[in-house]
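Standup notes
- DV: blocked on the single-chain target, sequence here:
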Amino acid sequence: MTSIQWMKEVDKREADLLKDAQELLKIKSVLDEENTTPEAPLGEGVKEALDFLLQLGEKDGFTAKNVGNLAGHLEFGQGEEIVGILCHVDVVPEGDGWISDPFGAEIRDGKIFARGAIDDKGPTMAAYYAMKIVKELGLPLNKRVRMIIGTDEESNWRCVDHYFEHEEMPAMGFAPDADFPIIYAEKGIADYDLVIKPAGTEKESYDAEVIEFSSGRRYNMVPDFAKAALAVHQGQTDIVQRFEDFKRQNELEGKAVVESGKLILELEGVSAHGMEPDNGKNAGLYMATFLSQLNLDGDSDKFFQFVAKYLCKDSRGRELGIAYTDDITGDLTVNVGKLSYTREGGGRAGLNMRYPVTTKLEKTKGILNQLLETEEFVIENFSNSNPHHVDEKDFLVQTLKKVYEEQTGEKAELISIGGGTYARSLKSGVAFGPLFPGRPDIAHQKDEYMIIEDLLKATAIYAQAIYELAK
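- DV (later): unblocked, structure below
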């Protein structure tokens, strides 16, 4: 047992830690693919956040390296093996309805409020200060400690792919980007679109045509807004009345207005992380349900009937025939993160499927393809990240369990998640904090915050963990 008072070391540095965390949180590091340059391939804000951390590390005496402007690392210590700490500085879009500026990093009520406070800039700064403590104490290490900084974790992981094409793989490591105690298993994650092309399906009579419909921007978020534009041929007053009734029955906010001869319908839902769709209210699916109840033209009727039948009120893939569960990671889940329809282009549903570690993916895809064939839909843009699982007896898991129990006095239960963390990019990697048991998970939500006491406690845990893994 080390006699180092880790929490005391953190307390000495609290003011600096909070100042640096605020600086990092003030940078709007949201993916901006419309404004890229060779120096900023994912946009200026993301690059600014990467530069901030690399410059801070250099100033504090770490070896800093920018890897193709897509990732970077900070390193200290000696040895053949590397202990990796995988962090990311990109954040999801801020969304609406914040009490304070999402990039103001305001401190109030013992919390720091900002997009990225808990996912993942706050924890990144905790891990950074943990490295700094171990380095400043001059503790003897026989491994190198390396913080790997990603910039595209919330989208396509281009940063990690690029990084490991050019840099060595750590022997083991952790990602401070989920929950305490220890996440040793993560579901597989597949994103794909279900697409129906316009077929000119004729219908003898109908009340309205859907000109345009859209909801959601990300596969991995439950959409909190949906909008549809209808050309109504008959019964407009009736449709509006039914819409008002539908909103009331489902406790939803929204509006119906007529603009340039079109009926515009809008619904507000509740956003949530796509790994558990039931935590949110999917505005797109509610709107699709409503539209499926109208007498629509042939093509849009076909699309919205499909969505209503197979995707609404079913986050477990039962209607699609792909439901599955195992004891390690629980249920397969399906989040409908993106929905769109146009008269000219047809309809598409963007799905984020999180599947248990023992799932046979090819079999699941086979079942899906069979169903889609009969419904005249096709799969497009299929991408997959395999499940990840580290054995409980592994040195990494055992060490982190010991550290967590010593620091908190609580038992370190192993948990599995539907989310995907950077830990899965390591052969031997787990997610480790920063969210303590019982704390609400407000990642990806408005008024995201991190409790300062938890930030400091996590820093102490990370410092001891780095020392124990690298000594």
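- Follow-up: The chain has a mean pLDDT of 95.
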